[in-house]
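Re: that backbone. Tokens:
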């Protein structure tokens, strides 16, 4: 997993999943690499979550770099399946962008504060 350059604290994983689950109901979430990429480029993403088991990794390798360029926080969940479940879809998904957290905005801010800051290369 060469593109996973941030160590996400273990205790944040369930918080991220819970926030995504709440945001999918009352907020606005973009699912999949193309939708996520567009959301980052439009700077409408507040947080991007990427699955750590995407193969080939080239599919998502541009996302952390785009996030850094646009100053958008990002995190990883271990698997596409977990990420898909968190946003209420039957299949796995490679990435999601939270554009509006709905009722999860406090949770979102809390997660963003606890995320490691990406190094600008």
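Recovered sequence:
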């Amino acid at each position: 997993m060469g593109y996973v350059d941030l160590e996400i604290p273990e205790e944040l994983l369930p918080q991220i999943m819970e926030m995504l689950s709440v945001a999918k109901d009352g907020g606005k979430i973009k699912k999949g690499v193309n939708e996520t990429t567009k959301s980052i480029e439009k700077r409408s993403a507040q947080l991007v979550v990427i699955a750590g088991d995407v193969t080939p990794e080239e599919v998502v390798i541009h996302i952390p770099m785009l996030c850094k360029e646009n100053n958008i926080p990002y995190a990883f969940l271990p698997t596409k399946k977990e990420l898909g479940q968190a946003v209420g879809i039957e299949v796995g998904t490679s990435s999601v962008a939270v554009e509006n957290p709905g009722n999860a905005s406090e949770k979102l801010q809390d997660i963003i504060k606890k995320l490691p800051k990406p190094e600008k290369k």
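The domain at 12-114 is CATH 3.30.1330.30 (60s Ribosomal Protein L30; Chain: A;). The CA atoms of residues 48 and 74 lie 5 Å apart.
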